[in-house]
Amino acid sequence: MPNRTKRIVILNEEEFRKTISRLTSEIIEKVKNLDNLLLVGIPTRGIDLSIVLEKELLLKTGLKMRKGIVDPTFYRDDQNRVGTRLIKATDIPTPIEKQEILLIDDVIYTGRTIRAAMDALYSWGRPKRVMLLVMVDRGHRELPIQPDFCGKKVPTSKSESISVRLNIVDNEEGVFLSSNGSEDIS
To answer: Which of 51, 117, 139, 173 could be a cystine partner for 13, CB 3.0 to 4.6 Å?
Structure first.
């Protein structure tokens, strides 16, 4: 008998858009000098999410945000468990000293990806401040890492997975929960 995955909608497209709008308003409120802000996406979905946030911030402020990418793959302490994927080149477009960095990822789970991303980021220098934005916090933290900006908290079991879908990549937008791990995004 085939394994049928039931996909549950956590945020539909309209709710997703409202969440993005709220998150960008929170960023504008919390970051005093947006000229000093660098958006840094974590592969893979964090990069795409940073593009969505950049566009929304441009609409709200008229400012073009600087963006970068940090790939934490070689800084992970759990590579044997999660495996490797095609590496994205780390791209930090400016010296990070005295910058406010907003690390962006789609889902926070154990915290290990974020810890590795911070290690990778600090190999480029010492920023003024590092903040974290995630679309979904699904719990099960193994490290004491919490997001500064969170779209939605979704308590999950370890057998469930969260998928953040973006129009620019998936031709649909929203957040979905599945129960067999077929769309696991950590």
So the answer is: 173
